[in-house]
Amino acid sequence: MWLKPARYSHVQDKSLYILVPNETYRNWYEQNFAELLDDAMRKLSLGVERIELICGEQTKTAPKQAKFDFDAPMAQFNPRYTFETFVVGRSNQFAHAAADAVARNPAKAYNPLFLYGGVGMGKTHLLQAIGQAILSNPEKKLRLAYVTTNQFLHEVINSLRYDRMISFHERYRNLDVLMVDDIQFVGGKERTQEELFHTFNALYEGQKQIVFTSDRPPKEIPDLEERLRSRFEWGLMADLQPPDLETKVAILMRKSELQSVRLPDEVALFMASKIHGNVRELEGSLTRLLAYCSLTATEITVGTAQQVLKSTLAAQERKITIESIQKVVADEFRLRVSDLMVKNNSKKIVYPRQIAMYLSRELAGASLPEIGRTFGGKHHTTVLHSIEKIKEGRLADKDLNKILHKLSGTLQ
Ligand code: ADP
Ligand code: MG
To answer: Is this model's pTM higher than 0.85 or not?
Structure first.
């Protein structure tokens, strides 16, 4: 009720002017929100020192839209994604150490740094931690940009469309640090790859730091120009593996601590051993449990966890594996599971095998080398080709789509 009507007016002399409907609002804001707003502003590091609330007549004196940089890099970061909140374990210690070195010595340690790993393994967290550490170093005032690959793509498109390529180049080639999240999405985007290539060269030659994250290593990104792929591999590549049990326990403890809750050891251990998914799922379960216990004033015990997380835990039991996929696909096509693994290039075998590989990637989240191994030692590029084939086929072929729906229905 109180926040909704507030509008940005302008910025002048490091003061941010906010427009509110009337005096009542203004008084209310000053009495109730002043500290919160100041606090939020400080955290966002937007270069604003004061907040002024204006209403009614005062607005007429406001100058026409002073420029205000809402894209200020710090504002894009999640304040929870820092090195302090990142739990280091065997599965991520290498990536963490590399990220830490880059944050301390941008462009001196490893360039580019290429962080990769499955969904929810902490890539974005680590990338933002690097960014926040660099920006909070007052000695070096570095120009930094943090973008997702999709943002970069849209900037390329808009710059082309509105004939603003020159300012696009200026923006990206004058940076000290460029961080791009989820770079796997440049696959197949030719023009974006070209821009990225030139941006990369300009920054690299100027000895500026570049950091990428990806859900897979460069050689597994489909439709990626060779010259970009090789550049991604020039510096250091570090992967983030699924956390082991102890790391999962530590993450649960740390996340509860951040919410000022004491999570009993046995509950943390219970959750860590039952939830096999990624850290994001683990965190989601924790949030649900803590919310439930807080809202119903229930003690946090293994019993409560069991009850609150019942559906999550049941889904975990039914976890889809490559083996279960092979079995279901073989049944569907009246083959034996072993048929899918032998060296046989007849269509009768190739097609089901491609489908099984596709499902292994999509439903079991298996990596290309892992799929290659389980299907009788296929090269990862063969696996990739098979998956792409089904992915494309699915768009045009209704029957194929039906089969895929049916199979995934059986598996879920
Ligand atoms: P990704 O980008 O790899 O998909 P994220 O960085 O978004 O994954 O991580 C998902 C969630 O898990 C985030 O909330 C993040 O804070 C948390 N997380 C992942 N790894 C860790 C870790 N080692 N320590 C603390 N939190 C982690
Ligand atoms: Mg991410």
So the answer is: no
